[in-house]
Amino acid sequence: MISKAKSKFIKSLKIKKYRKQEQCFVVEGRKSVAELLASDYDVVMVLGTPAFLSTIRPLPGVEVIEASESDLVSLGTFESNDGALAVARMKPERLLLPSKGEWMLALDDIRDPGNLGTIIRIADWYGIKKIVASLETADRYNPKVISASMGSFLRVDLCYTDLPAYIDQIQVPVVGAFLDGDDVHTAPFGYDGILVIGNESHGISEAVSARVSKRVTIPGYGGAESLNAAAATAVILDNLRRTLTGSE
């Protein structure tokens, strides 16, 4: 039985103000919750159907509550949930810096939570372990971000900072995605650096653009005006990985 107090607490975490206040967030769905339980995140509470709870190991220090599918739907954001919902603690914020031989992503004002979650998933696919985001970028713990990342938020670190100031202090190439620049299919990327992806509508801000050392573009062959930020990230990272593999 889920108490009214617990129900109210879980529902409050849909709102950024309360996530920040409680330093907790919600993960929904059988697969994502199972991955969360296997990660290094501190899990506070797990709600699951009897079928789901029968598949997990004992969880010392974690409150485990049996719930129906309708309970899980009413508490979360999914239209259907036949497995589980969990509450976990946020990790302490720490500044992420590039290491030698490593590529990172920098997100300049990515406002759409679905886009951010998809970009995190794409980063995971291409082996990007660190993302630095502007202070205006969507909250990484937004339920839509967690959902769209499909568990990749567990493997990709993300921090928020003043991007222009951050770029000023690093010593690696900074590549930016623009509508004009070197063709991404032939541009050499080098062994390390930071790839900047800009806002869905306005692209990379002037302050960050001034600090980009190399501009790349994805040439279009049809009538579309532009690409979604997540789609552009995938195309550029695919070409980046291809050139790195080809030079090994």
Could you walk me through the main structural features you see in this protein, from its secondary elements to its overall organization?
The chain is of the alpha/beta class. The protein has helices at 4-12, 16-22, 30-37, 50-53, 69-75, 113-125, 143-149, 163-169, 206-209, 229-246; strands at 24-28, 43-48, 63-66, 84-89, 103-107, 130-134, 157-161, 174-183, 193-197, 214-217. The strands form two sheets. Strands 7-6-5-9-8-10 form a six-stranded parallel sheet. Strands 1-4-2-3 form a four-stranded mixed sheet. Helix 6 runs parallel beside helix 10 (229-246).
Based on Cα principal axes, name the global outline. Answer: elongated
**In the CATH hierarchy, what is the class of the largest domain?**
Alpha Beta
Q: Mean of the pLDDT scores? A: 94
Largest sheet: 6 strands, parallel
- Architecture of the largest domain in CATH? 3-Layer(aba) Sandwich
Strand order of the largest sheet: 7-6-5-9-8-10
First-last Cα distance: 57 Å
Short note summarizing the structure:
The chain is an alpha/beta fold and 248 residues long.
Keywords:
10 helices; 60s Ribosomal Protein L30, Chain: A; 34% helix; 22% strand; 4-stranded mixed sheet; Alpha/beta knot; alpha/beta; 248 residues
Write the layout of secondary structure elements.
Layout lengths: L3 H9 L3 H7 L1 E5 L1 H8 L5 E6 L1 H4 L9 E4 L2 H7 L8 E6 L13 E5 L5 H13 L4 E5 L8 H7 L7 E5 L1 H7 L4 E10 L9 E5 L8 H4 L4 E4 L11 H18 L2
